[in-house]
């Protein structure tokens, strides 16, 4: 016998939990100094969303310049930061929405729409940064976009997935709220002779 049904009402915290994970990855991306790094030794290039640092092969001190002096640097930081702030707002709204007993499903669909806006802002920032950085900042040695930049993309991918789930959740309102009984299916007629 197989019982089919959507996740129970207790599982409603999975979506806010995923949004919290996206926030953590966004914080790592915003604070991390690994947006661009030297690929191999000597490590002479390092950049974050906010600044670019270089040093000589024998020098131990980094010489940094702010990316906020460039229009594209301000645009990349602003779009990613605006997306992050909206993500935090969506997280708070999701916690509120799933905390009340009578879930407002139109409210949940609105959170999904806002999450698509978050994804759009973050993607714009994540695309502007590497394109303009490689055009306007002189690079030393072999470089790669590194772990902090990857956390930015991971946060965006989680946000896109959550946006789809938030938008589609109202389609299964009765199952989530437990208003219908799960359907039972039998695998063979011998196990359920009374169905004949």
Please state the second-level CATH architecture.
Up-down Bundle
Question: What strand line-up does the widest sheet have?
Answer: 5-4-3-2-6
N→C terminal distance: 17 Å
Name of the CATH first level: Mainly Alpha
Gyration radius, rounded: 24 Å
From the 3D structure, determine the CATH topology: Butyryl-CoA Dehydrogenase, subunit A, domain 3
Shape: elongated
Structural class: alpha+beta
How many independent structural domains? 1
Helical segment count: 5
Number of strands: 7
Mean pLDDT across the residues is 81
Percent helix among the residues?
40-55%
Low-confidence stretches: 1-7
Q: How can the largest sheet be summarized?
A: 5 strands, antiparallel
Q: How much of the sequence is in beta strands?
A: 5-15%
The helix-strand sequence is EHEEEEHHEHHE
Q: What would you say this structure looks like, in words?
A:
The structure is a single chain. By secondary structure, this protein is α+β, with helices and mostly antiparallel strands. The protein has one domain: Butyryl-CoA Dehydrogenase, subunit A, domain 3. The chain is built from 5 helices and 7 strands. Helix 1 packs antiparallel against helix 2 and helix 2 packs antiparallel against helix 3. The N terminus is likely disordered.
Structure summarized in a few sentences:
The protein has helices at 14-31, 71-99, 105-136, 147-168, 173-177; strands at 2-4, 36-38, 45-47, 51-54, 63-66, 143-145, 183-185. It is an alpha+beta fold and 196 residues long.
């Amino acid at each position: 016998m197989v019982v089919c049904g959507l996740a129970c009402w207790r599982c409603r915290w999975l979506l806010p939990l995923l949004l919290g994970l996206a926030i953590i990855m966004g914080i790592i991306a915003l604070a991390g100094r690994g947006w661009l790094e030297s690929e191999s030794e000597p490590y002479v290039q390092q950049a974050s969303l906010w600044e670019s640092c270089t040093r000589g092969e024998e020098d131990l001190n980094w010489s940094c310049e702010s990316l906020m002096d460039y229009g594209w640097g301000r645009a990349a930081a602003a779009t990613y930061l605006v997306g992050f702030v909206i993500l935090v707002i969506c997280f708070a709204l999701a916690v509120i929405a799933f905390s009340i007993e009578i879930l407002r499903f139109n409210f949940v669909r609105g959170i999904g729409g806002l999450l698509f806006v978050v994804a759009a802002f973050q993607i714009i920032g994540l695309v502007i940064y590497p394109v303009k950085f490689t055009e306007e900042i002189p690079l030393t040695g072999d470089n790669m976009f590194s772990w902090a930049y990857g956390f930015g993309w991971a946060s965006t991918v989680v946000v896109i997935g959550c946006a789809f789930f938030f938008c589609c959740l109202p389609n299964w309102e009765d199952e989530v709220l437990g208003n219908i009984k799960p359907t039972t299916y039998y695998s063979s007629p011998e196990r359920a002779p009374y169905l004949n």
